[in-house]
Specification:
This protein has 7 helices and 7 strands. By secondary structure, it is α/β, with parallel strands linked by helices. It folds into 2 domains: 63 residues, no CATH class; 146 residues, Lambda Exonuclease, Chain A. The longest helix has 19 residues. It is globular.
Amino acid sequence: MNIAWSYSSLKTFQDCPKKYYHLKVAKDFVDKPTKATLYGNELHKAAEEFVKNGTPIPAKFDDIHIKPTLEGLMQLEGERFCEYRMGLTKDLEPCGFFDKHVWWRGIADLLIVNREKGLAYSLDYKTGKSARYADVQQLDLVAEGVMAHFPEITRIKSGLLFVVSNEFVKAYQTADSRGRYMDKVKPDLHRLQSAFETGVWNASPNNLCGWCPVKTCEHNKG
């Protein structure tokens, strides 16, 4: 069985297999957007339009640090890609985001590729209020995709840009570590594969239960 996954879908499974089952497999519950997710979506779109077309950042984002940061990033040399979608097959070969044999899917919010220098910059915008629990694993996975889709790239400077708290969490990936970034998530991928094969999707109670859309779960506190 070929299971297509992403950082966010695997994170859902890690948090609670039962939630993953209802949202991703049975699809009998929907994770409705919140004010925070809608704000994040608007911010991503505004950043994309600013970089691609020079469209002014809406005034509602004047109190955060997105515009000066983007202006600085646009001074970097290279070809710019916004919301760049990538897919990988199970043997880490590049493929389309929706290809039949896609195994991993990832999106770079802003990708700047300098083929001549073999260098890329990969940014992910975050609208959380703090970078305290930042997880750079997402950046590592995207780096795998970038190096597969752009074979000239051997070095990637990446970061999580927390635009509200004005924090920047950096990471650095190199071609000689390709494959190792995916190795780190293999134990959870094996668990996910096993859940599909056995049909066992146990609930994992945690501090997110109060916001879980799976209302039929005995642990739901909503």
